[in-house]
Each structure stands twice: as structure tokens, then as C-alpha cells.
From TrEMBL, chain A:
Its EC number is 1.3.5.1. It comes from Flagellimonas meridianipacifica. Belongs to the succinate dehydrogenase/fumarate reductase iron-sulfur protein family. Its cofactor is [2Fe-2S] cluster; [4Fe-4S] cluster; [3Fe-4S] cluster. It catalyses: a menaquinone + succinate = a menaquinol + fumarate. GO terms for molecular function: 2 iron, 2 sulfur cluster binding; 3 iron, 4 sulfur cluster binding; 4 iron, 4 sulfur cluster binding; electron transfer activity; metal ion binding; succinate dehydrogenase (quinone) activity. GO terms for biological process: respiratory electron transport chain; tricarboxylic acid cycle. This is Fumarate reductase iron-sulfur subunit. Residues 151-181 form the 4Fe-4S ferredoxin-type domain. Binds 1 [2Fe-2S] cluster. Binds 1 [4Fe-4S] cluster.
TrEMBL record, chain B:
The keyword Membrane applies. Its main location: membrane. Transmembrane segments: none annotated. It catalyses: a quinone + succinate = fumarate + a quinol. SUPFAM superfamilies: FAD/NAD(P)-binding domain, Succinate dehydrogenase/fumarate reductase flavoprotein C-terminal domain, Succinate dehydrogenase/fumarate reductase flavoprotein, catalytic domain. It comes from Flagellimonas meridianipacifica. It is an enzyme of class 1 (oxidoreductase). Belongs to the FAD-dependent oxidoreductase 2 family. FRD/SDH subfamily. The keyword rRNA processing does not apply. The lineage of its organism: Bacteria, Pseudomonadati, Bacteroidota, Flavobacteriia, Flavobacteriales. Its EC number is 1.3.5.1. Keywords: Cell membrane, Electron transport, FAD, Flavoprotein, Membrane, Oxidoreductase, Transport. This is succinate dehydrogenase. It is a peripheral membrane protein.
Length: 248, 667
């Protein structure tokens, strides 16, 4: 198939970017979206032009590196997948495809389609852990049985890949879904209780400091999240935050 | 013994590690504050090592090329992590895990290291649970286990199909805690381009900031390389796109011996190649072999009809299917080790029984499991005489709970529903047992340079068992390296900070800059991927699942020619001192073009078949691998002398004092 691509090009953080048009022929339906971009880049390189830079690594939907806005949708048209899992069979011959980076104040653009998501790391550093010593001798893993339902819920929250699609999808660029996923993972486990109050306060504070917007419950994040992280987590984090504030 | 002193402690096998830990020189906490350690790589091995070293009091700097430590390729591990907990009461023990690992590795690994690995395996699970890693649990609230290939017990802990993700996020959280305490400084989007030696000791690295393109110097009292495996040498593999050998190879060129480069694992269950555009291959976890049955049509005409699109697998009667693993290996059936399963798939496809367009695919079928689980569920929910459709539905739900994310991944790539029709799978490059040679302390042949995780060669011999890489990475990082490194650093308590303003750093930086300039000044005919794909084809066709003398010699020659061509004609747009993904790739491929030649030479020198290394000249009448213990019971450790093909072979003889070396059989 033949595609008409409009791609955001920006030399570096300081320069102004713009949309550039490309026409690409010979795209096959069983190619992945990123393989389609690989082919475009091969063409650009052979013409002596600079290829389009985009973030990617595992190409199987788990590392959370890939991050493209396709026709206004984070990770493209298909649901519950990352853009590296998207295949060209979701498009038709002659389609126009607009490809942009995540747009959020807290995610400045580095080059072309690549953004800086280190704010996410800093939120995790503020409290996304349980303070056990790795060099200590913890109790036997089976000493504390954990109800399967709780363990499964905690696992579901823990499957967040830190891609940032939730932020990109949100009109306020809020990072509530991401932050609440980590808070929930620990809040649902007995191991996480001791530091629960401190954790939620520190992580929320960092989130605000990074310049992410407020949550107005539009739910766009849940719809676009490739891992199906549920809005329940935001509700749980709000409860945790409230009870932590009450405790002071 | 020269440089290849394995430093295995004396005494009975089961006491070696405890004894060694008691005898290691310690660095007191106040002195640790004066010691800096660089950890390159933040996967399971590097992440866990960095967190533990920082917690012990050392000043740690970590480096990774991704934008966050959380994205190291350990994140992609699916199936599980082994530990000799014996929670299932099925006869597991430290000794059995040790024995299975040595046998699985086809008697080409070091007894003492493997025993230590089995010993600390149980601590890993305790540690991870304490950190909040949400492993799968049974209804009673206790941890659940599954089985992996090559063993007869159930010792694999898992978190659905995302075990690596959960373990890595655990290590990342431990790192984050230390970053917050100021004990780790994390450098992301940074790539190590060279190791710096001062007076023969590893004292720092040269790194490139991948955003600005700036070249930086970083010094430390010791350098840990936890940079993962080198399977991307084959271009197509289950690795992430950025996986590379650069850090290990640069250390090799500076004096670290490279061990068993040709020991590569080709994993039997991956999604087959679909076309030339393909950029990577996707694994379907070995855990699927717990429930999936592997088969091809028994009749060649059926296989032909399937390839022509005239027949569907579901239309082939039970008696016309060849469950070749169950047929050839009745004792282990579908759960034979990976090397055995991969070769068996190749054998059937080469004989003409392959089931996709290219003839390079076999079936992995869940139908029997779905019906079995469905019937069980119907019984336990008190249903009387449920119809087939109900049973199937119940069964599908159970299979989905176990492997849902893998089935979804498959469907997204192949566009077929694996609940309804068998998966098509074929072997692909997945893991490298070879790596930097290390002694019992995980130190390479360069003093002060350590290697952990997949980057070292240490524990898996010629074939790794499933779920043992995660175990090894975390064992190295949490429980071994942070202690053994103290033995070396205890001499450094009075050294003081290492300056980067020395001639050694000047020279290393100059060499790095010259190399980059040379890459940028290629005549500009072909892209980096062009060379990488060519190299991958040579490797897969001539150094892949089966090898022979003639082709290995051809491979060496072809790779050397390709390397020459690369340096003359590679085309890299953009500039060196800015973000430049093509330049990043070029540096990696340049090193692969050297490693590839050494790889082929190692395979050529090893005139036997063992584990993942299958030489056509050395096989039994039944086509099984034929080991030669008399002449090859050693680790090949290669010394760089200026050219890959001129590398010098050193041999570490392997002694088996606690295990009787036998012919490996899974029949
Ligand atoms: C798809 C898949 C599934 C798997 N499933 C399982 C499983 O179920 N069970 C199991 O036991 N094993 C499994 N494995 C194997 C296992 O995941 C790996 O062997 C293991 O995770 C490797 O960990 P590591 O810490 O050594 O390296 P990695 O996790 O690969 O980390 C390498 C690190 O090094 C960094 N790095 C590399 N080069 C440089 C450089 N030059 N400069 C700076 N940084 C650098 C990277 O940024 C990264 O942080 C699987 C592997 C794959 C590919
Ligand atoms: S919550 Fe979902 S969308 Fe947001 S970072 Fe996590 S996985 Fe991505
Ligand atoms: S590249 Fe890893 S999730 Fe897409």
C-alpha cells in the first residue's frame, strides 16, 4: 500500500519543529508500524537525509519505550497495545497518517518524536518502593500468605509500563493513572502498608512539582492505556491520599 | 594457571560459598563511603547489584542506554524464575537444581559457581516478595509454581507472562530508593564506549551522552559490566533492538578474555519470520510447553497441502499428527531442553514437514489443554455432563488466566486466534551462554573489572535451562557480586578518588573520538542496517542451529570482508555531536563485526557437539549431540591480540568432583 505520512520533525530541544510530508510506497500489511518507519528511514538515509528519530527498544509491548501519537491517538488506532505492536493491517492503501510525539509540558521534546520522560523516574524515586534492605535476610516468602484476589489486583496495577500514553491522552496532561498504579500495587499488599501514607504523599508531591496537570476524571487515560490500567487505581490513590492527609 | 585462575575455594562443594564469604576481606562502612563503583547496565543483574552496593555504602554510578533503568531488556522476560524452594514438595532441593543446571548445560559449566547459584536461589524469592513483587499465588494465598524444560520438578515462580517485568521493577524500585538517598547517580541515555585502565586496573569508562553527543569521562575504583547478551549479532533475535556487545567487547579488547562465544541459545518457541522487513522476533515463553503440544503433520502430503493453504491444522486427524518430541523423548516429551527441542523442529522442517509458507514452522497446540482444564473446571463446579462447547469455554478461560498476554501478543503479530487454531512457532536466537570470562568472584581477567548477568559466561555451560537467567542475574547482583567485590576493594581504601585528568583517560577519550570520526567519514554507500542484516544472514546460515567446518571457515572469511566493507562504505547521516541513532547503531554493529568472526572461530575449534553448539560432524546415529569429554571438557577463553582471527585460546579445564559426567539423555 501507499501511505501519506505527516511527521513531526524537530532538530533538538531548543529548535522549533514542524510537520513534514512523506510519501511511502510498498508497505505490506504484516509489517509492524515501526517497521514501516524503518523503511521510510532507509529511504531517507539513501537520499542522504537524516532519518526520523523515534524511541523504541523491545518491540514487543513491554519496555514502554515506544511513544507515538498517531492520528491524535497515543499508540495509534488499535486498543490495548503499544505502537510497536501495531501492524499495518490496521491501515488502508492511500491513508494519510499523522505522527507526532507525546505533547506535555512535563515531557519536553528531545528530537523529532522523542520526548524526555525522566519526570516519571523522579516520581518513582520519591516513594515507589518498599524500604527493605536488599542485603538483609527477609522472612521466608511463604510466611505471609496473600489472598489471591489481592495479589492479582496488585499485579494488574504493577503491569504499567511507564510509557506515558495516559499523560499524552489527557487534556490536562495529568500523570494520575501512572502514579496511582504504583501506589496501588503497594497499597494492596501487606508489605506495602508500613510506608503507605508517606509514599502516597511524596509521590503526589513530586508529580505536582514536575508540572503534570490536575485530574478532572475524563477517563481518557484508561481508554488509551495499552496495559488496561484501571481508573479504580486513581480512586484508590485518592482514598490513600485523603487518609494520609487526615493522619497528618 | 596464569590469568585463568578460577579462584574456586577449597573444601566440600556445599560449604565453599559459606566458607568463602567468611574469608573475604571486608571493607568497613566508613571506608566504603570513599569508594566509587561504576555499574554499566541496569537490568536484573546491574540494577540489583547497584542497589545492593549502594545500600552497603559504596558510591555508585549506573549507566544505561535507554531513557530509564526500568527499560532494560530483562523487562521482556516472560516465563519465570527458578528457585529450589521445594514449596510443591515434589522432591526439589539445592542439589537437584545444581544437578539439573549442570546436566542441562551439557557438562560445560563450573561446578562451584552453579552450586552457589542453586544455594542463593531461595533468597531471591524471599527478597523479591519482601520488595512487593506480585508473584502468582494459589487460592490458599501461597506462591504458585510451574515447570520449565529439562527438569522433572515444579520450581519456577512467575507473574503471569511478565515475570521479568515484575522482577526488574523490583530491582528498579530498590535502585530508586538509593537514588533518593543520594547513593546512586543514574545516567540514562548514556552509552559506555570504552573501558579505561590505569596501571592495569579498571578505573573508569568513556561514555557518550546520547542526547547531546558529548563524550564524558567517569572514574571509579571498580567497574561492573552488566550489559546483557550479544544475540543481536544475528540481527533477528528475541532481544531488544539496542542490545549490543559493545561494553563487553571494549573490555575484551583491553584484556578481558571472552569465554565460549559460540555457545548461543536458539529458543524453540518463537513466532516465525514473516518477511524481509522483519526487525525482530518475538518469543512465546517456554512456559507454554507446560500445556502446549508440539506437532507437525505425519504425512508429507498433508504438510504440502497446509503450505498451499488447502488444509487447516484443525482438519488433521489425531492419528495423522506427529508429536515428534513426545515420540522421540518419551520421558520429557514437550519439556525437553531448548537445544534439543530446537534441533528437533529444524529436523522436521528440513525433512519437509514445515507448516507455513516458508516451510519453517511447527505447531504448538493448546487444544488438549483447553479441554482438559475445561473438564476439570466443570467437575469442580459441579456441572453434570457439560457439552463440549461449555467445556471449551471454561478451558479457554483458564488458559487465558495463565497465558493471556502471550496469546494476545501472538494474535497481534500473526493475526490468528491461538485459542482456536494452533500457534505456529520456529526457533530463534534468544540468549548467549558465552560472555566475558569471570572467576568465582565474577572478576574478569582485568583486575577491578567485573561482569554479571548475561554478560558473563559463568553458570549455564553450553545450554541454559528456562527460568535460570533471571535467577542468575539476581543471584549475581543481590547476593554474590556485592560481597566478592569487597575482597578486591579492600586494597583501595586509601587510594582516594580516581582522577579523570590523566594520560590514561586522555588516550582513551582520544581513541573513542577517532573511532567516531572514522565511522562518520565512511564513503556513504550503505546504511548500518544493510551491514547488520548481512552479518545476521551469515551467522544464521553458517553459525546457527547446526554448524560444520566448511561453513564456519567461510563465515570467518565473509565476516572479515564485510567488516572491511563496513568501515569503508557505511553511511551515517547527521553529526557526531548531537542525538544520532544511526551513529549509535553503527558503533554496535562495528563490534558485532569483530565478535562474529571470533564466534565462528570458537565454533570451529570446538570439534564436538554440546548443548546449543551442534557440529554436524559430531553426532550419534540418532542425530543426537556427540560430546567429546576427553578433548573438550574445558571453557574456551579467548585473548584479544589485535585481530579477531588471531585471538589466542586459553583453556580452563572443568573438573567434576561431585557429579558423574554422563551422556545427556532426555529419552
Ligand atoms: C523475550 C525474552 C524472554 C525471556 N524470558 C526469560 C524467562 O522467563 N526466564 C529467565 O530466566 N530468563 C528469560 N530470558 C533471559 C533473561 O531475560 C536475560 O538473560 C536477562 O534478563 C539478562 O539480564 P541482564 O541484567 O544481564 O541484562 P539486560 O537486562 O539485557 O540489561 C542490559 C543493560 O545494559 C545496558 N547496556 C548495554 N550496553 C550498554 C552500553 N554500551 N552502555 C551503557 N549501558 C549499556 C542496557 O541499557 C541495560 O540496562 C528472556 C529473554 C528474552 C529476550
Ligand atoms: S498507566 Fe498505562 S498509559 Fe500510563 S504509563 Fe502506565 S501503561 Fe502507560
Ligand atoms: S518498544 Fe518496547 S513497548 Fe514498544
Amino acid at each position: 500500500m501507499k501511505l501519506y505520512l505527516k511527521i513531526w520533525r524537530q532538530k533538538n530541544a531548543d529548535s522549533k519543529g514542524s510537520m513534514v510530508d512523506y510519501t511511502l510506497d510498498g508497505v505490506e500489511s504484516d509489517m509492524s508500524f515501526l517497521e514501516m518507519l524503518d523503511i521510510l528511514n532507509e529511504e531517507l538515509i539513501s537520499k542522504g537525509e537524516e532519518p526520523v528519530e523515534f524511541d523504541h527498544d523491545c518491540r514487543e509491548g513491554i519496555c514502554g519505550t515506544c511513544s507515538l501519537m498517531i492520528n491524535g491517538q497515543p499508540h495509534g488506532p488499535d486498543s490495548r497495545i503499544t505502537v510497536c505492536q501495531l501492524h499495518m493491517r490496521s491501515f488502508n492503501d492511500g491513508d494519510e497518517i499523522v505522527i507526532e510525539p507525546w505533547r506535555a509540558t512535563a515531557f519536553p521534546i528531545i528530537k523529532d518524536l522523542i520526548v524526555d520522560r525522566s519526570a516519571f523516574d523522579r516520581i518513582q524515586q520519591a516513594g515507589g518502593y518498599i524500604s527493605v534492605n536488599t542485603s538483609g535476610r527477609p522472612v521466608d516468602a511463604n510466611a505471609i500468605p496473600i489472598e489471591k484476589e489481592m495479589a492479582d489486583k496488585s499485579f494488574n496495577a504493577a503491569t504499567c509500563i511507564g510509557c506515558g500514553a495516559c499523560v499524552a491522552a489527557c487534556k490536562n496532561a495529568s500523570a494520575m493513572l501512572f502514579t496511582s498504579a504504583k501506589v496501588s500495587q503497594f497499597a494492596l499488599l501487606p508489605q506495602g502498608q508500613v510506608e503507605a501514607a508517606e509514599r502516597v504523599q511524596n509521590m503526589v508531591r513530586q508529580m505536582d512539582l514536575e508540572g503534570f496537570g490536575n485530574c478532572t476524571n475524563t477517563g481518557a487515560c484508561e481508554v488509551e492505556c495499552p496495559k488496561g490500567i484501571s481508573l479504580e487505581n486513581i480512586a484508590r490513590m485518592n482514598r490513600e491520599y485523603l487518609s494520609a492527609s487526615v493522619k497528618g | 594457571m596464569g590469568k585463568l585462575d578460577s579462584k574456586v575455594p577449597s573444601g566440600p562443594l556445599a560449604d565453599k560459598w559459606t566458607k568463602h564469604k567468611n574469608e573475604i576481606d571486608l571493607v568497613n562502612p566508613a571506608n566504603k563511603r570513599n569508594i566509587d563503583i561504576i555499574v554499566v547496565g541496569t537490568g536484573l543483574a546491574g540494577g540489583s547489584a547497584a542497589a545492593t552496593l549502594a545500600e552497603l555504602g559504596y558510591n555508585v554510578k549506573t549507566f544505561c542506554y535507554q531513557d530509564s533503568p526500568r527499560r532494560a531488556h530483562s523487562i521482556a522476560a516472560q516465563g519465570g524464575v527458578n528457585a529450589a524452594k521445594n514449596y510443591q514438595g515434589d522432591g526439589d532441593s539445592v542439589y537437584r537444581l545444581f544437578y539439573d543446571t549442570i546436566k542441562g548445560g551439557d557438562y560445560r559449566s563450573r561446578e562451584a559457581n552453579v552450586h552457589r547459584l542453586a544455594e542463593v536461589s531461595t533468597n531471591i524469592i524471599d527478597q523479591c516478595v519482601a520488595q512487593g513483587v506480585p508473584f502468582a499465588r494459589e487460592y490458599g494465598g501461597l506462591l504458585d509454581n510451574r515447570s520449565f524444560g529439562g527438569v522433572l520438578v515444579s520450581r519456577t515462580f512467575y507473574a503471569k507472562g511478565q515475570t521479568g517485568q515484575q522482577l526488574l521493577l523490583g530491582a528498579y524500585s530498590a535502585m530508586n530508593r538509593q537514588i533518593q538517598r543520594g547513593k546512586i547517580k543514574s545516567y540514562t541515555r548514556h552509552e559506555m564506549l570504552d573501558l579505561v585502565l590505569v596501571d592495569g586496573k579498571a578505573r573508569g569508562i568513556i561514555a557518550r551522552d546520547l542526547v547531546s553527543g558529548e563524550i564524558e569521562r567517569h572514574s571509579a575504583h571498580a567497574v561492573v559490566l552488566a550489559t546483557g547478551g550479544y544475540g543481536n549479532l544475528f540481527f533477528l533475535s528475541t532481544y531488544c533492538m539496542g542490545a549490543n556487545v559493545m561494553a563487553a567487547w571494549r573490555a575484551h579488547r583491553k584484556g578481558a578474555y571472552f569465554a565460549n562465544p559460540c555457545f548461543t541459545q536458539i529458543h524453540p518457541t518463537c513466532i516465525p519470520v514473516s518477511g524481509d522487513h522483519q526487525s525482530k522476533l518475538t518469543l512465546m515463553s517456554e512456559s507454554l510447553r507446560n500445556d502446549g503440544r508440539i506437532w507437525v503433520p505425519a504425512k508429507i502430503e498433508d504438510a504440502e497441502a497446509i503450505r498451499a493453504g488447502k488444509l487447516k491444522p484443525t482438519e488433521i486427524a489425531e492419528e495423522d499428527r506427529d508429536y515428534y518430541l513426545e515420540r522421540r523423548y518419551p520421558a520429557f516429551g514437550n519439556l525437553v531442553p531448548r537445544d534439543v527441542a530446537s534441533r528437533a523442529a529444524k529436523e522436521r522442517c528440513d525433512a519437509g514437514y514445515g507448516v507455513n509458507k516458508t516451510g519453517e514452522a511447527v505447531y504448538l497446540d493448546f487444544d488438549a489443554a483447553i479441554m482438559r482444564y475445561g473438564r476439570e473446571k466443570a467437575l469442580t463446579s459441579g456441572m453434570k455432563n457439560p457439552d463440549d462447547a461449555t467445556v471449551r469455554k471454561l478451558g479457554e478461560e483458564i488458559v487465558e488466566a495463565k497465558y493471556g498476554n502471550l496469546f494476545q501478543m501472538y494474535e497481534k503479530i500473526v493475526d490468528e486466534n491461538p485459542y482456536k487454531t494452533p500457534m505456529k512457532i520456529y526457533p530463534a536466537v534468544h540468549y548467549t551462554m558465552g560472555g566475558l570470562w569471570v572467576d568465582y568472584n565474577l572478576q574478569t581477567t582485568i583486575p577491578g573489572c567485573y561482569a554479571a548477568g548475561e554478560a558473563n559466561f559463568s553458570d549455564h555451560g553450553a545450554n541454559r535451562l528456562g527460568a535460570s537467567a533471571l535467577m542468575q542475574g539476581l543471584a549475581d547482583g543481590y547476593f554474590v557480586l556485592p560481597y566478592t567485590i569487597g575482597d578486591y576493594l579492600s586494597d583501595d581504601i586509601r587510594t582516594g578518588p580516581i582522577s579523570t585528568e590523566t594520560t590514561e583517560f586522555d588516550e582513551a577519550e582520544k581513541a573513542v573520538r577517532e573511532r567516531i570520526e572514522k565511522l562518520m567519514s565512511g564513503s556513504g554507500i550503505h546504511s548500518v542496517d544493510y551491514y547488520h542484516k548481512k552479518l545476521g544472514k551469515i551467522m544464521w546460515n553458517k553459525c546457527g542451529m547446526s554448524r560444520n567446518e566448511k561453513e564456519l571457515k567461510e563465515a570467518m572469511k565473509e565476516i572479515a570482508e564485510l567488516r572491511k566493507d563496513f568501515w569503508e562504505n557505511v553511511k551515517i547521516p547527521g553529526t557526531a555531536y548531537s542525538k544520532n541513532q544511526e551513529l549509535e547503531k553503527a558503533g554496535r554493529v562495528a563490534d558485532f563485526l569483530e565478535l562474529g568472526e571470533l564466534f565462528a572461530m570458537d565454533a570451529l575449534e570446538r570439534n564436538e557437539s554440546c548443548g546449543g553448539h551442534f557440529r554436524e560432524e559430531y553426532q550419534t546415529e540418532e542425530g543426537e549431540a556427540l560430546r567429546d569429554d576427553e578433548n573438550f571438557k574445558f571453557v574456551s577463553a579467548w585473548e584479544y591480540t589485535g585481530e579477531p582471527s588471531k585471538s589466542k585460546l586459553h583453556k580452563e579445564d572443568l573438573k567434576y568432583e561431585n557429579i558423574k559426567v554422563k551422556t545427556r539423555s532426555y529419552k
